[in-house]
């Protein structure tokens, strides 16, 4: 009976693939975010940088609400923020719209070193659909037979770009580690950040997680590249050499850790 | 080191080479890692992230400044490779459970990366590291003490090698107040100063930190008799930043002190009584009527003649040791005699 079911399922899949083979299309493009460039007097210009390694999901819309959608496929962006889905028109649902959700998260594969979660552990995606998806589109995004034209670039707005800047900074730092380590990337690190977070900026040794400030009234660190990578340095130190910080508050030129090890030690977190 | 790690990991010299930026709502704070002028607190460079970062950065950055010259590595390695290699190899914690920039320094040479002249220049420039014996070694014992003068002249010294003890001597006059201080601690040095009497068995004062916000030490004392005192300077056992380090030491005569006053501050002031050691030891206080009477004789009668002064000087020479050895029965006997 079991073998029969498996065989039947395989037959159905083959038929579906055959029936839709002429109507398959490609949804591809590039996701970029809006970066705020730090200067010695505050933030300067904005620029656009790729979103590396982030998880991207393709949905078919089923209703008017944003959440009215069924996931069709998922993947991770490349290091340069590019993606490509090959899907059949039937999976897109005929005349239905579809949407793309991009998470500041990756699945932790061999080259996917970071995820950014809100403090409750949730990864919040940025969602592109409808007009947002056709900014640079050359074709029709509603379900049509044949090839599906896709926009060349999806741009995350500045307001939503904080988590993706964190991803970018850490991904680039991880690439540097891999370069020095014969191509082996570090394990994935989890960064906790959300708008308004006042939990501080530090790296926690027990969970090897990074926390970043999101306090809009005093200090928010999601675009502070130095601060982000500084904390990631603690993570790297934990994993590649003896940890170099005794914990406690350290801030730039103030008396602080230098090249230090303290393991095991009483401190479990190291504010940055 | 972590700031170095951060600098290394940013990985784009054109964007990130020299400035550390932390934006705030009110603007940004930043530090340039190349010029050292804005770096750190004096004396704590080994414990200063920006300073350490600056030193390590200069090992492989593309610019060569006056304190910096090109490195030469074999096997096609770069300075970046070397720094990372040393960083990665620091896997064994030393006995104090701390890895410091000193460990980096020694590991660098243990791994054969050499370039000693340039390394020395960079680490001296950015970190004021003094990994060498000072000019007064070997003064690791009281008998080999280095003379200090009481005019405030400073001597530059180092703790090198590890667990170095430095001894100094200072000729003092009774009833004058003296202060011995360490200052300008570098490379995380954390001094403890202890002043001993001429025989080394009485502590006139000891001090770790002259106040809570410094690692400098200061001992003020009033010697009860003319003598040469001995000063021991060591690193505090509880130090966390460096095994080695440098410091300056000086001594000054502060003028007439109150005889017998214990050393101020947190010193464990020791020493005998004021002008009349034996009597003070016998009666327990300089305030005793008999002690005051004897002091009056000393000041009004003996001091007025050369012979009397000699007698007083000899008394000061021998009496401290006698006073220090007096047991209770002997003190009672002496009280009876003086009464």
Describe the 3D structure.
The complex is a heterodimer of chains A (272) and B (339). In chain A, 21% of the residues lie in helices and 30% in strands. Chain A has 272 residues and is α+β, with helices and mostly antiparallel strands. In chain A, the strands form 4 sheets. In chain A, strands 7-10-12-11-15 form a 5-stranded mixed beta sheet, covered by helices on one side. In chain A, helix 3 (162-180) packs across helix 4. Chain A is globular and about 55 Å long. The termini of chain A are far apart. Helix content of chain B is 32%, strand content 22%. Chain B is built from 10 helices and 11 strands. Chain B has helices at residues 2-10, 13-16, 49-60, 79-89, 101-110, 116-127, 277-283, 289-300, 306-325, 328-338; strands at residues 19-24, 27-32, 146-148, 155-159, 166-172, 176-186, 191-196, 203-207, 218-221, 227-235, 245-256. Chain B has 339 residues and is an alpha+beta fold. In chain B, helix 3 (49-60) runs antiparallel to helix 6 (116-127), helix 7 crosses helix 9 (306-325) and helix 7 (277-283) packs across helix 10 (328-338). Chains A and B meet through helix 3, strand 14 and helix 4 of A and helix 1, strand 1, strand 2, helix 3 and helix 4 of B.
Compact overview of the structure:
The complex is a heterodimer of chains A (272) and B (339). In chain A, 21% of the residues lie in helices and 30% in strands.
The counted number of beta strands of chain B is 11
User: First CA to last CA of chain B: what distance?
Assistant: 70 Å
Strand portion of chain B? 15-25%
Number of helices of chain A: 4
Helix content of chain A: 10-25%
Give the ordered list of helices and strands of chain A.
HEEEEEHEEEEHEEEEEHE
Shape of chain B: elongated
Query: Considering DSSP H and I runs of 4 or more, what fraction of the residues of chain B is helical?
Result: 25-40%
* Widest sheet: strand ordering of chain B: 3-5-10-7-8
Order of helices and strands of chain B: HHEEHHHHEEEEEEEEEHHHH
Number of helices of chain B: 10
Strand content of chain A: 25-35%
Largest sheet: number of strands, sense, barrel closure of chain B: 5 strands, mixed
* Strand arrangement, major sheet of chain A: 7-10-12-11-15
Gyration radius over CA of chain B: 27 Å
Structural class given helices, strands, pairing of chain B?
A: alpha+beta
| Cα end-to-end separation of chain A | 61 Å
- Kindly report the oligomeric state of this protein: heterodimer
Tell me the radius of gyration of chain A: 22 Å
């Amino acid at each position: 009976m079991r073998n029969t079911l498996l065989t039947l399922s395989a037959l159905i899949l083959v038929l579906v693939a055959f029936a839709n083979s002429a109507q398959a299309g490609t949804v591809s493009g590039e996701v970029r975010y809006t970066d705020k460039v730090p200067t010695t007097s505050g933030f300067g210009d904005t620029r656009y940088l790729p979103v590396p390694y982030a998880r991207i999901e393709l949905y078919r819309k089923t209703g008017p609400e944003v959440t009215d959608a069924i996931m069709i496929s998922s993947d991770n962006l490349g290091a340069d923020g590019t993606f490509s889905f090959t899907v059949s028109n039937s999976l897109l649902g005929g005349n239905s719209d579809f949407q793309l959700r991009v998470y500041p998260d990756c699945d932790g594969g061999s080259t996917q070193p970071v995820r950014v979660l809100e403090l409750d552990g949730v990864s919040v995606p940025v969602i592109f659909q409808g007009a947002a998806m056709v900014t640079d589109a050359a074709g029709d995004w509603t379900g049509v037979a044949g090839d599906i034209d896709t926009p060349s670039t999806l741009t995350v707005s500045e307001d939503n770009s904080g988590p993706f800047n964190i991803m970018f900074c850490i991904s680039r730092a991880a690439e540097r580690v891999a370069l020095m380590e014969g191509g082996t990337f570090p394990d994935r690190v989890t960064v906790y950040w959300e708008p308004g977070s006042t939990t501080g900026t530090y790296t926690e040794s027990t969970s090897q997680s990074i926390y970043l400030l999101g306090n809009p009234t005093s200090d928010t660190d999601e675009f502070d590249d130095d601060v982000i990578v500084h904390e990631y340095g603690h993570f790297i130190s934990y994993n590649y050499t003896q940890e170099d910080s005794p914990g406690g508050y350290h801030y730039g030129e103030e008396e602080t850790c230098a090249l230090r090890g303290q393991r095991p030690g009483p401190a479990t977190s190291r504010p940055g | 080191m972590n700031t170095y790690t951060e600098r290394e990991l940013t990985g784009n010299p054109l964007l990130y080479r020299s400035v550390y930026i932390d934006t705030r709502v009110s603007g940004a704070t930043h530090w340039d890692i190349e010029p050292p002028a804005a770096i750190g607190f004096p004396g704590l460079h080994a414990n200063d992230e920006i300073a350490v970062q600056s030193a390590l950065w200069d090992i492989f950055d593309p610019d060569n400044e006056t304190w910096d010259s090109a490195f030469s590595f074999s096997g096609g390695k770069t300075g970046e490779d070397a720094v990372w290699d040393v960083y990665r190899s620091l896997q064994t914690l030393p006995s104090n459970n701390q890895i410091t920039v000193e460990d980096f320094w020694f590991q660098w040479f243990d791994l054969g990366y050499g370039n000693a002249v340039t390394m020395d220049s960079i680490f001296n420039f950015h970190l004021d590291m003094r990994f060498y014996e000072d000019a007064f070694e070997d003064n690791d014992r009281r008998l080999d003490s280095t003379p200090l003068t009481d005019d405030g002249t400073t001597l530059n010294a180092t703790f090198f090698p590890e667990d170095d003890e430095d001894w100094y001597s200072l000729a003092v006059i009774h009833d004058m107040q003296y202060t011995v201080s360490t200052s300008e601690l570098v490379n995380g040095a954390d001094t403890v100063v202890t002043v001993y009497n001429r025989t080394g068995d009485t502590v006139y004062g000891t001090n770790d930190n002259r106040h809570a916000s410094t690692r400098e030490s200061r001992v003020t004392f009033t010697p009860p008799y003319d003598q040469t005192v001995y000063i021991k300077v060591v690193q505090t056992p509880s130090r966390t930043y460096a095994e080695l380090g440098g410091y300056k030491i000086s001594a000054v005569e502060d003028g007439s002190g109150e005889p017998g006053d214990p050393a101020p501050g947190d010193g464990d002031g020791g020493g005998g009584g004021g002008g009349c050691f034996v009597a003070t030891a016998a009666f327990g206080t300089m305030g005793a009527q008999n002690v005051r009477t004897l002091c009056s004789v000393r000041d009004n009668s003996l001091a007025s003649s050369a012979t009397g002064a000699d007698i007083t000087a000899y008394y000061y020479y021998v009496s401290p040791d006698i006073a220090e050895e007096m047991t209770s029965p002997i003190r009672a006997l002496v009280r009876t005699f003086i009464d």
